[in-house]
Amino acid sequence: MDQNHAERHYVSRAGWLRAAVLGANDGILSTASLIVGVAATYGRAEVLVAGTAGLVAGALSMAAGEYVSVSSQADMEKADTERERAEIAADPVEELHALARIYQERGLSAALALEVANELHAKDALAAHLRDELGFSEHSEAKPLLAAGTSALSFAVGAAMPVLAAILVPEARISLWVTISSLAFLSLLGAVGAKTGGAPAMRAVVRVTFWGAVAMAVTYGVGKLFGAQV
User: What is the DSSP string of 42-55?
Assistant: First the structure.
C-alpha cells in the first residue's frame, strides 16, 4: 500500500462552504434583484441608495441569522452531550451494550461488536457514543461565530458586485447590465462552489443561473408595475 496516498474528501469544508456560498449567492441575487427593480423606474442615485442599503442590511441580517441558528444547533449539541455523559455515568454497562448493538446493525458479529465497544469505551466512552450513537463529528460541529462572519463577509462581497456594476454602466442600461453581470457572477459562484465541494459544476451553474434569472425578472416586473403607479 502506498504510504503517501491520501484520499481527498470534501466533508471538512461543509461548514464554512455552506455559509460562504449561501452568503455570496444571496448577496448577488437579492441586491441585483433590488437594483433591477428600482432601476426599472428610477435613476442611478436611487439605485445606489437602494443597493447600498441592501448590502449593509443584508450582511447584518445574514450574520445575525446564521449566528442565532447555528447557536441553537450548538446549544442542542451541548445538551445532548451532557445527557449522554449522564447516561454513561448512570449505567455504563447498558450504554456499552447499546453501542455494541449499533455495531452489530452495521454488520459486525455480536462478539466482535462487543469487543469493539469495549475497546472504545476504555479509551473514550463519551466520544464513541457522540460519534456512533448521535452522529456528531468534527466536520459538522456548530461554530456560530465562524458561520456568522463567513456569511456576512461573503454576502457583502457578493452584493458589492451588482452595486459596482450599477456605478460603472450607463444609467439607461443599469437593469440590463446588472442582470447580465449578476448572472455571470452567479454562474461563476456556482462553478466555484461545486468545484470546492467536489461536485459537478454544470448542474450547479444551471441551477443558480436559472433561479437568478427568474428572481430578477419578477423583481423587474414588480418595479415596472408599482413604479408606474407612483
Answer: S-HHHHHHHHHHHH
- What is the C-alpha to C-alpha distance for residues 152 and 59, in angstroms, rounded to an integer? 4
C-beta neighbour count of 152 within 10 angstroms: 23
- In 3D space, the residue among 141, 158, 150, 186 whose CA is nearest the CA of residue 65 turns out to be 150
Which cell numbers in the block locate residue 173? Answer: 442600461
Residue 138 lies in a domain: no
Total tally of structural domains belonging to the chain = 1
Q: Point out the least confidently predicted range of 4-13, 38-47, 76-85, 138-147.
A: 4-13
40 neighbors 178 (Cβ within 8 angstroms): no
> Domain of 34?
13-80+146-227
Domain assignment of residue 108, yes or no: no
What whole-number distance in Å separates Cα of residue 219 and Cα of residue 39? 10
For the four alpha carbons of 120, 123, 126 and 130, in that order, the dihedral sign comes to negative
CA 137 to chain centre: 17
The predicted-structure confidence for 65-99, as pLDDT tens digits, reads as follows 888 988 888 888 888 889 989 988 998 899 889 88
